[in-house]
Amino acid sequence: MLRSDFNFDLPEELIATYPSEQRTGCRMLCLNGLDGTYSDKHFYDLKEFLKPGDLLVFNDTKVIPARLYGKKESGGALEFLIERLVSETSALTHIKSSRSPKAGATLIIDGGYEFMVDGREGELFKISTKNGESLLDILNKVGHIPLPPYIDRPDEELDRERYQTVYSKIPGAVAAPTAGLHFDDNQLEELKKMGVNLAFVTLHVGAGTFQPVREDDILNHHMHSEFVHLSKEVADAVIQTHKNGNRVIAVGTTAVRSLESAACFAKKSGSSDEIVPFSNDTSIFIYPGYDYHVVDCLITNFHLPESTLIMLVSAFAGYSHTMNAYLHAVNEKYHFFSYGDCMFITKNPMAKEDLPPSAK
């Protein structure tokens, strides 16, 4: 299966660099996975597609101000992007500099805070606060919101609110679970009054989510790893939802990866349940041919050409249905990526048969 199968032409002016005026005001392309038909709606129309007893599964991770600027003791400029908080005082991070710092080096961050380089783990540097200060406290004081690379502008004060879901709770993400950015408090209350149930998993989105697929054959791609916590309460809610004949709706690809990781773990461990509690790293890679276990509908933004995320969507809705919907979105000038518009997709039960040209 070739990376090029998932390419499409995207005019630069369709890349959203700022959020919509109102969270629920974005456009929503609704794709029927069964027959590939679609309709143009807005996110405030979501209630039309939900039923009492449906379960919306959200990712409650909270974006941290993970980008830092500073210098070496020698004066050379540095840029940090925290990848993962390891403890209260340490993290794994990407560092941009003219020369890579060595273990034992002291790095001075804006505000005068000092970090120690403890060593390396692959391409990442392990750093710790030199005086035992809380790393999260330092980030909240002098860190910058780590906007994705395709948003070509410095972060602004509005990003601290809008590049964050209204239900964010657990600090640790360096990228937002962007499908959730469209919900506001009023809409969530309205859905609950309708009888729609809500559940929350935690997946701390890493910077690896933006890493391109470089292999021509996607089966050779090495997927990045992220930490997931899915509780017994959420697993039980998923099981009960299906027992009642209702649907599990993943809000974003991170919720998909959390749910499907827990379902795969259940299968591997020999459990009779379709899903079990899961608290571990996942590097699940979902692409056409994957058999979805628990997700019935998906709310998701539009994704980069040739990315693992458009591959995930293609595995859910079917390859041809997905690419046709993306062509429509481009023609109708939908806005793309993190601050862009979104899709509501129902599962295609025949998606495993709807494969890219190179896989036939």
Automatic annotation (TrEMBL):
Described by its record, this protein's role is as follows:
Transfers and isomerizes the ribose moiety from AdoMet to the 7-aminomethyl group of 7-deazaguanine (preQ1-tRNA) to give epoxyqueuosine (oQ-tRNA).
Q: Where the protein is mainly located, per its record? A: cytoplasm
Q: Report the sequence similarity comment from the record.
A: Belongs to the QueA family.
Question: Catalytic activity, per the record?
Answer: 7-aminomethyl-7-carbaguanosine(34) in tRNA + S-adenosyl-L-methionine = epoxyqueuosine(34) in tRNA + adenine + L-methionine + 2 H(+)
InterPro entries given in the database record:
QueA, QueA_dom1, QueA_dom2, QueA_sf
Q: Which UniProt keywords apply?
A: Cytoplasm, Glycosyltransferase, Queuosine biosynthesis, S-adenosyl-L-methionine, Transferase
Task: Please tell me the species this chain comes from.
Answer: Succinivibrio faecicola
Name of the molecule in the record: S-adenosylmethionine:tRNA ribosyltransferase-isomerase
Write one Gene Ontology MF term.
Answer: S-adenosylmethionine:tRNA ribosyltransferase-isomerase activity
What quaternary arrangement does the UniProt entry report?
Monomer.
Q: Which Pfam families match?
A: Queuosine_synth (PF02547)
Q: What pathway, per the record?
A: tRNA modification; tRNA-queuosine biosynthesis
SUPFAM superfamilies in the record: QueA-like
The entry's localization annotation reads:
Cytoplasm
EC code = 2.4.99.17
